[in-house]
Specification:
With about 120 residues, this protein is mostly helical. Helix 5 runs parallel beside helix 7.
Amino acid sequence: MEAIEQLAAGWMAEHPEWHADFADVDAAVARHYGDGAVGGNPFLHLSMHLSISEQCSIDQPRGIRQAVELLTARRGDLHAAHHEVMECLGQMLADAQASGRPPDGDAYIACVQRRATRDG
């Protein structure tokens, strides 16, 4: 497998609740996953895991790697940390869409950092 396929397979393995969606291409294409909510769309969810992984690998936006590492250390679990980062990433994208401005990477990182410094 290519590196990206290995990365995707690792995140897919973390979500057994969606193995059937990932296994049946025709059914997945035919299915409507609702409003695109991260928790309800396995493909959006997987793509966010991949995006966060890639962002960390190249530290772009600058500081995201450290913020995710701090959150992971705080939570003791990379998977749980990614789910919190997804909320920040989703908010950044929603804010950009609503304002018509480019995504604010500083606000995104600040969101992850806030999560890394609070309990629960």
